[in-house]
Write the structure tokens for this entry.
Amino acid sequence: MRIKNAIKLAFKDLGRSKKNTILSSTGIAIGIFLIVLMVSLGEGIRTRLAESIREITSLNLIKVSPPYEGPSTCFSEEECKDFEGPSPTKEILKEDEEQIKNFPEVEYIWRPYRFQVEYSLNEKKIDFYVLSSLPKESFDITKVVNLIAGKPYQNNREIIIEENTLKEVGFKDPGNALGKEVIVKPYIVEKSLLEGEYYEEIPQKAKKYYDERKLKIVGISKSSFLSLGDNNLVDISLAENIYKKYLKVKPENEVDSSLYNLNVIVKDPEDVKVVSDKIKNMGYEVESAESTIQMLNSGFRSVNLILATFGIVVLITSAIGIANTMYILVLKRKREIGILKAIGAKNKDVLSIYLFEAVLIGIFGAIVGIFTAWIVGNGLSIAITEIVKSQMKNMPFISEIKGRILSPYISLRLFFGTILIAVFFSVIAARRPAKQAAKMTPVEALRYE
């Protein structure tokens, strides 16, 4: 019997047993729906995060730090009282910094300074914000600062302020702040003078100022996610001067982050792995956009596997239903099987008809499941986006999100992979009843009433 004829007979038989076909396909559809819905939403989140990482992080930037040791979490109230997390095992040595600087693939390196500061502008003061540093020479190299207005600074009397900071001091249109002067006052917090464990603003008496600068706003940067001034930037030369003053007042127990961090810019993004491996061999840890994305992908693969397991359990249950359906179909069609055998059909011909029926059930159930998952996934995506935007509309980074917060992502691999899984379970379930039908003799089958 030709394959074409076997497929025609399979279609015809399934059409005559619509109720059983629909029931079997429904079980497959539910299992595939769960797999595709969960995995596609997970893939949608992963894709969105990966895109965000590439947008806010330079592809040729490597962040260097020493290994850290110690517990990363605390469990009891007593443990958490003075808990500060893992601590660095060593400083980044000057000689190692020089060695990295001399790598042929390296374009530029610098120590990232970061200060807690008070900003005074537009007759308002705000704290809890930070001041970061970026060499003016690296703007064109890194391309990590998204300027929405103005230009990069050219000297140590200019500053780039992020839009969230300007909105906090009353600028509805951050662009109106260009050309104005902001007073920047770095300070340390004397914890012994803090009143209470939690506070909305740092008491004035607990602040110990160690510098004051009046800087001209020449650029406005886009705020990063949950940023508290990470994109408030000054040139590295100014940051080094502030840092020298900080060292004079630095508390003994306060960690100086600049000793444990180094930023490295490579000439070509393709050199990131080569330079990263060299730095790792020196005993340091590295972080880059691609390494972060790889770690993200690895984590989501594990999550997707766990999520897909729920759908697999449903498919196993569905396979039992398909097996029962096939046994019923075999009993109902004994005379037909006998006639086929009597006119010359071989065992493999009968076997192929029933296996083709199982394949069709699997394909039909999978397509219905995938289509339903796509509809439900998009519905959830729209609902989640609307809820988050309405509940958190006052948060700047939420109001600026274009489109949906997450969207289901059904890749070709997921589409065809789930169809193959559905067909696999259907064929496995139908194999035994199909073999039973194939082994029938014409006489045995024609006797059946």
DSSP finds 14 helices and 14 strands in the chain. The two ends are 26 Å apart (CA to CA). The chain has a mean pLDDT of 78.
